[in-house]
Write a structure and sequence with these properties.
The complex is a heterodimer of chains A (157) and B (359).
Chain A: H1 2-33, E1 64-65, H2 80-84, E2 90-96, E3 104-112, H3 121-125, E4 131-132, E5 149-150, H4 152-156
Antiparallel strand pairs in A: 1-4, 2-3, 3-5
Chain B: H1 2-36, H2 57-66, H3 78-93, E1 104-107, E2 110-113, H4 122-132, H5 134-143, H6 147-177, H7 183-189, E3 193-194, E4 198-199, H8 202-205, H9 207-220, H10 244-269, E5 278-279, E6 282-284, E7 290-292, H11 295-321, H12 329-358
Helix pairs in contact in B: 1-10, 1-11, 3-5, 3-10, 5-6, 6-9, 6-12, 9-10, 9-12, 10-11
The chains are: A alpha+beta (157), B mainly alpha (359).
Chain lengths: 157, 359
Protein backbone atom coordinates (compact mmCIF):
# COMPACT_ATOMS: atom_id res chain seq x y z
CA UNK A 1 0.00 0.00 0.00
CA UNK A 2 2.75 2.44 1.01
CA UNK A 3 4.78 1.30 -2.00
CA UNK A 4 1.82 1.94 -4.29
CA UNK A 5 1.42 5.41 -2.79
CA UNK A 6 5.13 6.06 -3.39
CA UNK A 7 4.74 5.01 -7.01
CA UNK A 8 1.78 7.31 -7.39
CA UNK A 9 3.76 10.24 -5.97
CA UNK A 10 6.63 9.41 -8.33
CA UNK A 11 4.24 9.49 -11.27
CA UNK A 12 2.91 12.89 -10.23
CA UNK A 13 6.45 14.20 -9.74
CA UNK A 14 7.39 13.04 -13.24
CA UNK A 15 4.55 14.93 -14.84
CA UNK A 16 5.35 18.03 -12.76
CA UNK A 17 8.93 17.89 -14.05
CA UNK A 18 7.85 17.89 -17.70
CA UNK A 19 5.24 20.57 -16.95
CA UNK A 20 7.95 22.77 -15.41
CA UNK A 21 10.17 22.33 -18.47
CA UNK A 22 7.23 23.16 -20.73
CA UNK A 23 6.22 26.25 -18.78
CA UNK A 24 9.75 27.68 -18.40
CA UNK A 25 10.68 27.08 -22.04
CA UNK A 26 7.31 28.41 -23.23
CA UNK A 27 7.88 31.58 -21.17
CA UNK A 28 11.20 32.26 -22.90
CA UNK A 29 9.75 31.43 -26.33
CA UNK A 30 6.93 33.90 -25.69
CA UNK A 31 9.37 36.59 -24.59
CA UNK A 32 11.34 36.01 -27.80
CA UNK A 33 8.15 36.30 -29.84
CA UNK A 34 7.46 39.64 -28.14
CA UNK A 35 11.04 40.65 -29.00
CA UNK A 36 12.06 41.04 -25.37
CA UNK A 37 15.74 40.18 -24.97
CA UNK A 38 16.69 37.65 -22.32
CA UNK A 39 19.92 35.93 -21.42
CA UNK A 40 18.38 32.48 -21.54
CA UNK A 41 16.82 30.90 -24.60
CA UNK A 42 13.80 28.64 -24.77
CA UNK A 43 15.70 25.89 -26.54
CA UNK A 44 19.32 24.77 -26.73
CA UNK A 45 19.04 24.08 -30.47
CA UNK A 46 21.52 25.69 -32.88
CA UNK A 47 19.62 25.91 -36.19
CA UNK A 48 22.49 24.74 -38.35
CA UNK A 49 22.58 26.22 -41.83
CA UNK A 50 21.59 29.65 -40.55
CA UNK A 51 23.45 29.69 -37.26
CA UNK A 52 26.74 27.89 -36.83
CA UNK A 53 28.51 26.82 -33.73
CA UNK A 54 31.85 28.58 -33.20
CA UNK A 55 34.77 26.31 -34.10
CA UNK A 56 37.49 25.95 -31.47
CA UNK A 57 40.86 27.44 -32.45
CA UNK A 58 42.57 24.03 -32.29
CA UNK A 59 39.85 22.32 -34.35
CA UNK A 60 41.33 20.23 -37.20
CA UNK A 61 39.52 21.30 -40.34
CA UNK A 62 40.40 21.32 -44.06
CA UNK A 63 44.16 21.26 -44.85
CA UNK A 64 46.05 24.07 -46.50
CA UNK A 65 49.62 24.37 -47.79
CA UNK A 66 51.50 27.49 -46.76
CA UNK A 67 53.46 29.56 -49.28
CA UNK A 68 56.82 31.29 -49.19
CA UNK A 69 57.06 35.02 -49.81
CA UNK A 70 57.61 34.42 -53.52
CA UNK A 71 54.42 32.34 -53.81
CA UNK A 72 55.97 28.91 -54.09
CA UNK A 73 54.82 26.25 -51.63
CA UNK A 74 56.84 25.94 -48.46
CA UNK A 75 56.94 22.17 -48.77
CA UNK A 76 60.37 20.61 -49.37
CA UNK A 77 59.01 17.18 -50.34
CA UNK A 78 60.67 15.45 -47.38
CA UNK A 79 57.92 12.77 -47.39
CA UNK A 80 57.49 12.85 -43.60
CA UNK A 81 53.74 13.48 -43.86
CA UNK A 82 53.42 10.70 -46.42
CA UNK A 83 55.23 8.35 -44.04
CA UNK A 84 53.27 9.28 -40.93
CA UNK A 85 49.82 9.33 -42.55
CA UNK A 86 47.86 6.42 -41.02
CA UNK A 87 45.26 6.32 -43.78
CA UNK A 88 47.85 6.72 -46.55
CA UNK A 89 46.02 9.51 -48.30
CA UNK A 90 48.91 11.89 -49.10
CA UNK A 91 50.80 11.47 -52.35
CA UNK A 92 53.86 13.68 -53.01
CA UNK A 93 56.19 13.73 -56.01
CA UNK A 94 59.43 15.65 -55.66
CA UNK A 95 61.44 17.66 -58.21
CA UNK A 96 64.67 19.56 -57.95
CA UNK A 97 64.46 23.15 -56.89
CA UNK A 98 66.79 25.72 -58.57
CA UNK A 99 67.53 27.30 -55.20
CA UNK A 100 70.41 25.34 -53.58
CA UNK A 101 69.15 26.32 -50.12
CA UNK A 102 65.86 24.47 -50.72
CA UNK A 103 67.03 21.64 -52.99
CA UNK A 104 63.64 19.84 -53.30
CA UNK A 105 60.09 20.94 -53.94
CA UNK A 106 56.86 19.07 -54.72
CA UNK A 107 55.81 18.74 -58.34
CA UNK A 108 52.49 17.32 -57.17
CA UNK A 109 50.94 17.21 -53.72
CA UNK A 110 47.67 15.29 -53.52
CA UNK A 111 45.47 14.66 -50.48
CA UNK A 112 42.61 12.20 -50.94
CA UNK A 113 40.08 13.69 -48.51
CA UNK A 114 37.76 10.71 -48.94
CA UNK A 115 40.38 8.64 -47.08
CA UNK A 116 41.69 11.31 -44.68
CA UNK A 117 40.76 10.75 -41.03
CA UNK A 118 41.73 14.26 -39.87
CA UNK A 119 44.17 12.98 -37.25
CA UNK A 120 46.51 15.92 -37.81
CA UNK A 121 49.69 13.77 -37.81
CA UNK A 122 50.87 15.38 -41.07
CA UNK A 123 50.75 18.78 -39.37
CA UNK A 124 52.72 17.45 -36.39
CA UNK A 125 55.31 15.75 -38.60
CA UNK A 126 56.02 18.67 -40.95
CA UNK A 127 59.47 20.19 -40.21
CA UNK A 128 58.85 23.24 -42.41
CA UNK A 129 55.41 24.21 -41.04
CA UNK A 130 54.19 23.82 -44.61
CA UNK A 131 50.86 22.11 -43.95
CA UNK A 132 48.25 23.29 -41.49
CA UNK A 133 44.66 22.34 -40.71
CA UNK A 134 43.38 25.73 -39.58
CA UNK A 135 41.13 26.89 -42.42
CA UNK A 136 38.02 26.48 -40.25
CA UNK A 137 36.29 24.98 -43.24
CA UNK A 138 34.24 21.91 -42.34
CA UNK A 139 31.69 21.86 -45.16
CA UNK A 140 33.36 20.29 -48.18
CA UNK A 141 31.01 17.43 -48.98
CA UNK A 142 30.80 16.53 -52.68
CA UNK A 143 28.61 14.37 -54.86
CA UNK A 144 31.47 12.36 -56.40
CA UNK A 145 34.62 10.88 -54.91
CA UNK A 146 37.02 12.31 -57.48
CA UNK A 147 36.10 15.83 -56.44
CA UNK A 148 37.41 15.04 -52.96
CA UNK A 149 40.94 14.54 -54.28
CA UNK A 150 42.65 17.86 -53.58
CA UNK A 151 45.81 18.74 -55.54
CA UNK A 152 48.54 21.31 -54.97
CA UNK A 153 46.58 24.11 -56.60
CA UNK A 154 43.49 23.54 -54.50
CA UNK A 155 45.47 23.16 -51.29
CA UNK A 156 47.50 26.36 -51.65
CA UNK A 157 44.45 28.53 -52.32
CA UNK B 1 -36.40 21.12 -45.92
CA UNK B 2 -34.54 23.85 -44.00
CA UNK B 3 -34.10 21.37 -41.13
CA UNK B 4 -32.07 19.19 -43.46
CA UNK B 5 -29.92 22.10 -44.52
CA UNK B 6 -29.28 23.01 -40.88
CA UNK B 7 -28.30 19.41 -40.07
CA UNK B 8 -26.01 19.35 -43.11
CA UNK B 9 -24.32 22.59 -42.05
CA UNK B 10 -23.91 21.27 -38.52
CA UNK B 11 -22.35 18.04 -39.80
CA UNK B 12 -19.91 19.90 -42.04
CA UNK B 13 -18.93 22.36 -39.30
CA UNK B 14 -18.44 19.67 -36.66
CA UNK B 15 -16.47 17.38 -38.97
CA UNK B 16 -14.25 20.20 -40.20
CA UNK B 17 -13.62 21.29 -36.60
CA UNK B 18 -12.86 17.73 -35.59
CA UNK B 19 -10.55 16.87 -38.47
CA UNK B 20 -8.67 20.17 -38.46
CA UNK B 21 -8.04 20.03 -34.72
CA UNK B 22 -6.97 16.38 -34.99
CA UNK B 23 -4.65 17.30 -37.88
CA UNK B 24 -3.10 20.07 -35.83
CA UNK B 25 -2.72 17.74 -32.87
CA UNK B 26 0.14 16.19 -34.84
CA UNK B 27 1.72 19.64 -34.88
CA UNK B 28 0.97 20.11 -31.17
CA UNK B 29 2.57 16.75 -30.45
CA UNK B 30 5.77 17.67 -32.29
CA UNK B 31 6.01 21.14 -30.83
CA UNK B 32 5.00 20.29 -27.27
CA UNK B 33 7.44 17.39 -27.06
CA UNK B 34 10.12 19.71 -28.40
CA UNK B 35 9.41 22.38 -25.80
CA UNK B 36 9.39 19.78 -23.03
CA UNK B 37 12.77 18.48 -24.17
CA UNK B 38 14.37 21.94 -24.69
CA UNK B 39 14.24 21.62 -28.47
CA UNK B 40 12.50 23.72 -31.13
CA UNK B 41 10.64 21.12 -33.15
CA UNK B 42 9.53 20.98 -36.77
CA UNK B 43 9.74 24.50 -38.20
CA UNK B 44 11.05 24.09 -41.73
CA UNK B 45 7.88 23.42 -43.74
CA UNK B 46 7.16 26.62 -45.65
CA UNK B 47 5.02 28.11 -48.37
CA UNK B 48 6.98 30.74 -50.32
CA UNK B 49 9.60 31.00 -47.56
CA UNK B 50 6.77 31.60 -45.12
CA UNK B 51 7.33 29.38 -42.08
CA UNK B 52 4.88 30.50 -39.33
CA UNK B 53 6.42 28.29 -36.59
CA UNK B 54 5.93 25.14 -38.63
CA UNK B 55 2.15 25.40 -38.99
CA UNK B 56 2.32 23.92 -42.51
CA UNK B 57 3.94 20.75 -41.21
CA UNK B 58 0.71 18.65 -41.06
CA UNK B 59 0.04 19.44 -44.73
CA UNK B 60 3.59 18.58 -45.69
CA UNK B 61 3.17 15.26 -43.86
CA UNK B 62 -0.13 14.58 -45.63
CA UNK B 63 1.36 15.31 -49.05
CA UNK B 64 4.34 13.10 -48.30
CA UNK B 65 2.05 10.24 -47.31
CA UNK B 66 -0.12 10.70 -50.41
CA UNK B 67 2.88 10.19 -52.67
CA UNK B 68 4.27 7.18 -50.87
CA UNK B 69 3.77 3.74 -52.32
CA UNK B 70 0.56 2.14 -51.08
CA UNK B 71 1.77 -1.39 -50.66
CA UNK B 72 -0.52 -4.36 -50.03
CA UNK B 73 1.38 -7.56 -49.28
CA UNK B 74 0.74 -10.49 -51.59
CA UNK B 75 -0.07 -12.80 -48.67
CA UNK B 76 -2.65 -10.53 -47.04
CA UNK B 77 -6.42 -10.74 -47.37
CA UNK B 78 -6.86 -7.81 -49.71
CA UNK B 79 -10.42 -6.74 -48.93
CA UNK B 80 -10.12 -6.86 -45.14
CA UNK B 81 -6.64 -5.36 -45.30
CA UNK B 82 -7.99 -2.37 -47.18
CA UNK B 83 -11.10 -2.14 -45.02
CA UNK B 84 -9.35 -2.06 -41.61
CA UNK B 85 -8.03 1.54 -41.52
CA UNK B 86 -11.38 2.87 -42.70
CA UNK B 87 -13.23 0.92 -40.01
CA UNK B 88 -11.05 2.30 -37.26
CA UNK B 89 -11.27 5.83 -38.72
CA UNK B 90 -15.03 5.75 -39.25
CA UNK B 91 -16.01 4.62 -35.75
CA UNK B 92 -13.99 7.39 -34.13
CA UNK B 93 -15.12 10.08 -36.56
CA UNK B 94 -18.81 9.26 -36.05
CA UNK B 95 -18.66 9.89 -32.28
CA UNK B 96 -18.42 13.63 -32.90
CA UNK B 97 -22.13 13.58 -33.80
CA UNK B 98 -23.09 13.24 -30.13
CA UNK B 99 -20.78 15.89 -28.64
CA UNK B 100 -22.56 19.07 -27.53
CA UNK B 101 -20.53 22.13 -28.53
CA UNK B 102 -22.85 24.59 -26.86
CA UNK B 103 -26.41 25.31 -25.81
CA UNK B 104 -29.15 26.39 -28.24
CA UNK B 105 -28.47 29.18 -30.69
CA UNK B 106 -31.52 31.32 -31.60
CA UNK B 107 -31.45 32.79 -35.09
CA UNK B 108 -34.55 34.23 -36.74
CA UNK B 109 -37.04 32.59 -34.39
CA UNK B 110 -35.41 29.20 -34.86
CA UNK B 111 -33.70 27.24 -32.10
CA UNK B 112 -30.58 25.41 -33.25
CA UNK B 113 -28.92 22.97 -30.89
CA UNK B 114 -25.14 23.15 -31.19
CA UNK B 115 -24.91 19.39 -31.45
CA UNK B 116 -25.40 17.28 -34.57
CA UNK B 117 -27.99 14.91 -33.11
CA UNK B 118 -29.27 15.02 -29.56
CA UNK B 119 -30.61 11.54 -28.92
CA UNK B 120 -31.50 9.88 -25.67
CA UNK B 121 -28.64 7.43 -25.34
CA UNK B 122 -25.81 9.53 -26.73
CA UNK B 123 -23.45 8.47 -23.92
CA UNK B 124 -24.02 4.79 -24.71
CA UNK B 125 -23.67 5.58 -28.41
CA UNK B 126 -20.26 7.20 -27.92
CA UNK B 127 -19.04 4.32 -25.75
CA UNK B 128 -20.31 1.75 -28.25
CA UNK B 129 -18.66 3.45 -31.22
CA UNK B 130 -15.35 3.79 -29.35
CA UNK B 131 -15.43 0.06 -28.61
CA UNK B 132 -16.27 -0.81 -32.21
CA UNK B 133 -13.06 0.94 -33.21
CA UNK B 134 -11.25 -2.16 -31.89
CA UNK B 135 -12.49 -4.02 -34.97
CA UNK B 136 -10.18 -1.91 -37.08
CA UNK B 137 -7.20 -3.06 -35.04
CA UNK B 138 -8.18 -6.73 -35.00
CA UNK B 139 -8.91 -6.69 -38.73
CA UNK B 140 -5.61 -5.01 -39.47
CA UNK B 141 -3.72 -7.48 -37.30
CA UNK B 142 -5.43 -10.51 -38.73
CA UNK B 143 -5.75 -9.70 -42.40
CA UNK B 144 -2.08 -8.73 -42.75
CA UNK B 145 -1.36 -12.45 -42.26
CA UNK B 146 1.87 -11.76 -40.40
CA UNK B 147 2.72 -13.12 -36.96
CA UNK B 148 3.79 -9.79 -35.50
CA UNK B 149 0.73 -7.93 -36.68
CA UNK B 150 -1.47 -10.73 -35.34
CA UNK B 151 0.26 -10.42 -31.96
CA UNK B 152 -0.23 -6.68 -32.01
CA UNK B 153 -3.87 -7.03 -32.96
CA UNK B 154 -4.54 -9.58 -30.24
CA UNK B 155 -2.78 -7.43 -27.65
CA UNK B 156 -4.81 -4.47 -28.80
CA UNK B 157 -8.03 -6.42 -28.49
CA UNK B 158 -7.14 -7.70 -25.01
CA UNK B 159 -6.07 -4.29 -23.75
CA UNK B 160 -8.96 -2.32 -25.17
CA UNK B 161 -11.59 -4.81 -24.04
CA UNK B 162 -10.24 -4.92 -20.48
CA UNK B 163 -10.10 -1.15 -20.24
CA UNK B 164 -13.57 -0.89 -21.79
CA UNK B 165 -14.87 -2.54 -18.59
CA UNK B 166 -13.26 0.03 -16.31
CA UNK B 167 -14.32 2.83 -18.67
CA UNK B 168 -17.95 1.74 -18.58
CA UNK B 169 -18.04 1.11 -14.83
CA UNK B 170 -16.43 4.46 -14.02
CA UNK B 171 -19.30 6.23 -15.78
CA UNK B 172 -22.05 4.46 -13.83
CA UNK B 173 -21.42 6.63 -10.77
CA UNK B 174 -21.73 9.67 -13.02
CA UNK B 175 -25.02 8.45 -14.46
CA UNK B 176 -26.32 7.97 -10.90
CA UNK B 177 -25.47 11.58 -10.03
CA UNK B 178 -26.80 13.09 -13.25
CA UNK B 179 -29.80 10.84 -13.96
CA UNK B 180 -29.53 10.79 -17.73
CA UNK B 181 -27.70 9.12 -20.61
CA UNK B 182 -28.21 12.18 -22.78
CA UNK B 183 -24.97 14.16 -23.10
CA UNK B 184 -26.78 17.48 -23.44
CA UNK B 185 -28.84 16.73 -20.31
CA UNK B 186 -25.68 15.78 -18.38
CA UNK B 187 -24.16 19.12 -19.35
CA UNK B 188 -27.34 20.94 -18.32
CA UNK B 189 -27.29 19.27 -14.89
CA UNK B 190 -23.70 20.48 -14.46
CA UNK B 191 -24.88 24.08 -14.78
CA UNK B 192 -26.48 23.93 -11.33
CA UNK B 193 -24.66 25.06 -8.23
CA UNK B 194 -23.51 23.09 -5.21
CA UNK B 195 -24.05 24.91 -1.89
CA UNK B 196 -24.80 28.02 -3.86
CA UNK B 197 -21.33 28.69 -5.23
CA UNK B 198 -19.44 25.64 -6.59
CA UNK B 199 -20.54 24.64 -10.09
CA UNK B 200 -21.92 21.11 -9.99
CA UNK B 201 -19.27 19.66 -12.31
CA UNK B 202 -18.44 15.98 -12.45
CA UNK B 203 -14.94 16.65 -11.17
CA UNK B 204 -16.39 17.78 -7.81
CA UNK B 205 -19.08 15.09 -7.56
CA UNK B 206 -17.13 12.14 -9.00
CA UNK B 207 -13.39 12.71 -8.41
CA UNK B 208 -12.61 8.99 -8.23
CA UNK B 209 -14.73 8.34 -11.30
CA UNK B 210 -12.79 11.03 -13.14
CA UNK B 211 -9.46 9.43 -12.23
CA UNK B 212 -10.57 5.96 -13.37
CA UNK B 213 -12.13 7.33 -16.54
CA UNK B 214 -9.00 9.27 -17.37
CA UNK B 215 -6.68 6.27 -16.92
CA UNK B 216 -8.96 3.95 -18.88
CA UNK B 217 -9.41 6.54 -21.62
CA UNK B 218 -5.65 6.97 -21.91
CA UNK B 219 -5.41 3.22 -22.42
CA UNK B 220 -8.17 3.46 -25.05
CA UNK B 221 -6.14 5.90 -27.13
CA UNK B 222 -3.34 3.25 -27.23
CA UNK B 223 -0.63 5.89 -27.06
CA UNK B 224 2.63 5.64 -25.23
CA UNK B 225 2.13 4.67 -21.63
CA UNK B 226 -0.27 2.04 -22.98
CA UNK B 227 1.03 1.50 -26.51
CA UNK B 228 1.08 -2.31 -26.40
CA UNK B 229 -0.81 -2.82 -29.69
CA UNK B 230 1.96 -0.86 -31.42
CA UNK B 231 4.90 -1.74 -29.17
CA UNK B 232 7.44 0.04 -31.36
CA UNK B 233 10.44 -1.56 -29.67
CA UNK B 234 9.31 -5.17 -29.50
CA UNK B 235 6.66 -6.36 -31.95
CA UNK B 236 6.13 -3.27 -34.13
CA UNK B 237 2.41 -3.74 -33.95
CA UNK B 238 -0.77 -4.21 -35.87
CA UNK B 239 -0.02 -1.79 -38.73
CA UNK B 240 3.34 -3.27 -39.72
CA UNK B 241 2.06 -4.20 -43.18
CA UNK B 242 0.54 -0.80 -43.92
CA UNK B 243 2.19 2.04 -45.76
CA UNK B 244 1.38 5.44 -47.14
CA UNK B 245 -1.96 7.01 -46.46
CA UNK B 246 -3.50 3.88 -44.93
CA UNK B 247 -0.83 3.89 -42.25
CA UNK B 248 -1.46 7.62 -41.91
CA UNK B 249 -5.13 6.90 -41.32
CA UNK B 250 -4.24 4.66 -38.35
CA UNK B 251 -1.96 7.36 -36.95
CA UNK B 252 -4.65 9.98 -37.52
CA UNK B 253 -7.18 7.78 -35.72
CA UNK B 254 -4.95 7.90 -32.64
CA UNK B 255 -5.03 11.68 -32.65
CA UNK B 256 -8.78 11.72 -33.24
CA UNK B 257 -9.16 9.45 -30.24
CA UNK B 258 -7.11 11.88 -28.15
CA UNK B 259 -9.46 14.64 -29.25
CA UNK B 260 -12.63 12.65 -28.61
CA UNK B 261 -11.37 11.64 -25.16
CA UNK B 262 -10.70 15.30 -24.42
CA UNK B 263 -14.26 16.11 -25.58
CA UNK B 264 -15.72 13.38 -23.38
CA UNK B 265 -13.70 14.44 -20.33
CA UNK B 266 -14.90 18.01 -20.84
CA UNK B 267 -18.50 17.03 -21.41
CA UNK B 268 -18.82 14.50 -18.59
CA UNK B 269 -16.58 15.86 -15.85
CA UNK B 270 -15.79 19.50 -16.54
CA UNK B 271 -19.14 20.96 -17.39
CA UNK B 272 -19.01 20.77 -21.18
CA UNK B 273 -19.83 24.21 -22.52
CA UNK B 274 -20.79 25.54 -19.07
CA UNK B 275 -18.93 28.58 -17.81
CA UNK B 276 -19.20 28.93 -14.02
CA UNK B 277 -22.13 31.22 -13.08
CA UNK B 278 -22.99 31.96 -16.73
CA UNK B 279 -26.71 31.57 -17.42
CA UNK B 280 -28.78 32.15 -20.55
CA UNK B 281 -28.97 35.91 -19.85
CA UNK B 282 -25.48 36.53 -18.51
CA UNK B 283 -23.33 36.10 -15.41
CA UNK B 284 -24.96 35.86 -11.97
CA UNK B 285 -22.15 35.77 -9.44
CA UNK B 286 -22.71 34.04 -6.08
CA UNK B 287 -21.53 37.18 -4.26
CA UNK B 288 -24.46 39.04 -5.74
CA UNK B 289 -22.99 40.73 -8.81
CA UNK B 290 -24.58 40.58 -12.24
CA UNK B 291 -23.27 41.04 -15.76
CA UNK B 292 -26.04 40.70 -18.33
CA UNK B 293 -24.99 39.76 -21.86
CA UNK B 294 -26.81 39.46 -25.20
CA UNK B 295 -27.64 35.97 -26.46
CA UNK B 296 -24.96 35.83 -29.17
CA UNK B 297 -22.14 36.63 -26.75
CA UNK B 298 -23.38 34.03 -24.25
CA UNK B 299 -23.30 31.35 -26.97
CA UNK B 300 -19.84 32.51 -28.04
CA UNK B 301 -18.67 32.25 -24.43
CA UNK B 302 -20.04 28.72 -24.19
CA UNK B 303 -18.40 27.50 -27.41
CA UNK B 304 -15.14 29.19 -26.42
CA UNK B 305 -15.23 27.57 -22.97
CA UNK B 306 -15.82 24.14 -24.52
CA UNK B 307 -12.92 24.63 -26.93
CA UNK B 308 -10.53 25.85 -24.25
CA UNK B 309 -11.31 22.90 -22.00
CA UNK B 310 -10.86 20.47 -24.90
CA UNK B 311 -7.52 22.06 -25.83
CA UNK B 312 -6.36 21.80 -22.23
CA UNK B 313 -7.08 18.08 -22.10
CA UNK B 314 -5.40 17.51 -25.47
CA UNK B 315 -2.36 19.32 -24.08
CA UNK B 316 -2.47 17.18 -20.92
CA UNK B 317 -2.65 13.94 -22.89
CA UNK B 318 0.30 14.92 -25.07
CA UNK B 319 2.22 15.85 -21.90
CA UNK B 320 1.48 12.42 -20.43
CA UNK B 321 2.55 10.74 -23.64
CA UNK B 322 5.93 12.52 -23.50
CA UNK B 323 6.49 11.98 -19.78
CA UNK B 324 6.01 8.32 -19.00
CA UNK B 325 7.76 5.20 -20.23
CA UNK B 326 5.54 2.41 -21.48
CA UNK B 327 4.06 -0.34 -19.36
CA UNK B 328 4.88 -3.98 -19.69
CA UNK B 329 1.99 -6.18 -20.85
CA UNK B 330 1.36 -7.77 -17.44
CA UNK B 331 1.53 -4.36 -15.75
CA UNK B 332 -1.16 -3.06 -18.07
CA UNK B 333 -3.39 -6.01 -17.31
CA UNK B 334 -2.71 -5.66 -13.56
CA UNK B 335 -3.57 -1.98 -13.62
CA UNK B 336 -6.75 -2.64 -15.55
CA UNK B 337 -8.21 -5.65 -13.78
CA UNK B 338 -6.73 -5.41 -10.28
CA UNK B 339 -6.84 -1.67 -9.70
CA UNK B 340 -9.21 0.19 -11.99
CA UNK B 341 -12.11 -2.30 -12.05
CA UNK B 342 -12.24 -2.76 -8.23
CA UNK B 343 -11.86 0.98 -7.73
CA UNK B 344 -14.72 1.68 -10.09
CA UNK B 345 -16.89 -0.87 -8.25
CA UNK B 346 -16.01 0.90 -4.97
CA UNK B 347 -16.90 4.18 -6.64
CA UNK B 348 -20.32 2.84 -7.66
CA UNK B 349 -21.00 1.53 -4.14
CA UNK B 350 -19.81 4.72 -2.48
CA UNK B 351 -21.89 6.90 -4.79
CA UNK B 352 -24.97 4.76 -4.17
CA UNK B 353 -24.55 4.92 -0.37
CA UNK B 354 -23.97 8.68 -0.40
CA UNK B 355 -26.94 9.28 -2.70
CA UNK B 356 -29.28 7.22 -0.54
CA UNK B 357 -28.04 8.92 2.64
CA UNK B 358 -28.46 12.40 1.17
CA UNK B 359 -31.85 11.45 -0.21
Amino acid sequence: MIKALGNFIAIIKGSLLTTRHFMVNMWFHTLKLLRIKTKRKGAVTIQYPEEKREIASRHRSLHRLLKRDDGKPRCVACMLCVTVCPSECIFVEATEDPDPEIQKSPSSFIIDLSRCCFCGFCVEACPEDAIRMDTGQIEFAEYTRDRLIYDLEKLTE
Amino acid sequence: MSDWIIILIKIICALVWFLVIALYLTWVERKESAVIQDRIGANRANIWKFRVIGLFQPFADAIKMLFKEDFTPRFSRKFLHNLAPFVSFFFVAITVSAIPFGDVLRIGGREIKLQIVDFNVSLLFVMAMLSLGIYGIILAGWSSNNRYTLLGGMRGAAQLISYEVALGLSLIGLIMVYPSLKLSAIVHYQGELLWGWIPKWGVFLQPLGLLIFFFAALAETKRVPFDLPEGENEIVGFFTEYSGLKWGLFMFTDFMEVLIIACLLTTLFFGGWQVPWLYADGFHFPWGGQWLLPHGIVVAFQVLAFNLKVFFFCWLQVLIRWTYPRFRYDQVMDLGWKLLVPLSLINIAGTAILLSLLG
